[in-house]
Design brief:
By secondary structure, this protein is an alpha/beta fold. It has helices at 17-30, 39-43, 47-57, 63-72, 104-118, 141-144, 149-155, 182-189, 216-224, 226-235, 241-247, 259-271, 275-287, 293-307, 311-321, and strands spanning 80-85, 88-93, 125-129, 134-136, 171-175, 178-180, 192-196, 200-202, 239-240, 252-254. The strands form 2 sheets. It has a 6-stranded mixed beta sheet, with helices on both faces.
Length: 331
């Protein structure tokens, strides 16, 4: 697809549309043990599916998250899948027919799910992924195309998407396929990006008569350097997974069928540590984007000192000294 028109984004379909869609529906059901928290939609569904949700509701490890989702919000999830596994909250963007284009509803659902995982004490880390073909092909162009300046100025645009960076727990993005425009920006708002070999990162907004609007012009240069970022933003040309790794945009490249598994391994490891200490470490690394080196070092030093006020610092160091295994209290 990308290759078929040189470095331009090409919309030529190498695979018939019906095959793509069928492929997606397989993904949604077989990729992992995912479930949809979707009580409203569920009422309209056949009995068999209703049974499957009630079965899932009885699984103890998922209970607090689901209860929160079904009681706090009347709105059901239709465009994402959520799962909790081994202290990891997994959010899968699931709008396959539009290549996970970030429409308002998907953004709101993502926001709700991330907030719920962030406040769930049984979750230590979050994995955010899409489908094998697309992490997300950008903001929803069809939804945006007719908006006026006054619409977006008065009401804002992508408001809830900006909440991704407020999530205290680390988010690991598992990216396969297209991560374009808002999709690339969403991946960059995560803390670690693990890319499948098929991943394509790009900011093609220039070809739409606009510019990146969810941080692309700011985060991309910090990740890949000015020259490469400029080329990507000014030409719209994407980079492949290997280039993204060489440039520092992603932490590593793995085979496509291992991308979620690899992200889960990283997330499980992170979840095995003290949650407040993990959050302090994330906050410190992020501070590097907000301050001078001197200010950042001061910030780090203060947070480092504050770990000595936690039980988990005592626990971790005592366990080392006594050759034991720490049992984190998360305080
Ligand atoms: N918004 C809305 N719909 C989208 C979309 C998007 N960003 N990307 C893909 N789709 C839809 C297509 O319209 C198509 O829908 P229909 O079947 O109803 O026609 C469906 O998803 C499948 O897409 P294609 O048929 O185009 O699939 P393809 O394999 O031929 O091409 C692609 C894939 C190269 C990613 C191509 O879809 C594409 O170029 N998409 C747009 C990418 C883009 O420009 N993203 C930036 C958006 S603007 C933005 O994000 C601004 C910002 O910074 C916030």
């Amino acid at each position: 697809m990308f290759a078929s028109k040189g470095t331009q984004l090409s919309r030529t379909r190498a695979v018939p549309r019906f095959a793509q869609i069928r492929n997606y529906s397989n993904v949604a059901t077989t990729r992992s043990n995912l479930f949809q928290v979707n009580p409203m939609k569920f009422n309209a569904r056949p009995q068999q599916q209703m049974t499957s949700l009630s079965t899932i509701n009885r699984v103890p490890t998922q209970h607090s998250f689901e209860r929160k989702m079904s009681t706090q919000t009347e709105k059901a999830f239709e465009m994402i899948l959520v799962e909790k596994k081994d202290k990891v909250g997994v959010v899968t963007l699931n709008r396959p027919k539009a290549l996970n284009a970030l429409c308002t509803q998907l953004i709101q659902e993502l926001d709700q799910a991330l907030k719920a995982f962030d406040s769930d004490p049984s979750v230590g880390c979050i994995v955010l992924t899409g489908s094998p073909k697309a992490f997300a092909a950008g903001a929803d162009i069809k939804e945006m195309s007719s908006k006026t300046y006054m619409d977006v100025y008065k009401n804002g645009i992508f408001n809830e998407l900006e909440n991704v960076i407020k999530v205290k727990k680390p988010i690991v993005a598992a990216v396969s396929g297209y991560a374009l425009g808002g999709g690339c920006e969403l991946a960059m708002m995560c803390d670690i990006i693990i890319a499948g070999e098929s991943a394509k990162f790009g900011q093609p907004e220039i070809a739409l008569g606009t510019i990146p609007g969810i941080g692309g012009t700011q985060r991309l240069p910090r990740a890949v350097g000015k020259s490469k970022a400029m080329e990507m933003v000014l030409t719209g040309n994407p980079i492949d997974a290997q280039t993204a790794e060489r440039s520092g945009l992603v932490s590593r490249v793995v085979p496509d069928d291992k991308v979620v598994e690899s992200a889960m391994e990283v997330a499980k490891k992170i979840s095995s540590f003290s949650q407040p200490i993990v959050q302090m470490a994330k906050e410190c690394v992020n501070q590097t984007y907000e301050s001078s080196l001197k200010e950042g070092l001061h910030f780090e030093s203060r947070l480092f000192m504050s770990t000595f006020a936690t039980n988990d610092q005592k626990e971790g160091m005592n366990a080392f000294v006594n050759k034991g295994k720490p049992s984190w209290k998360n305080n």
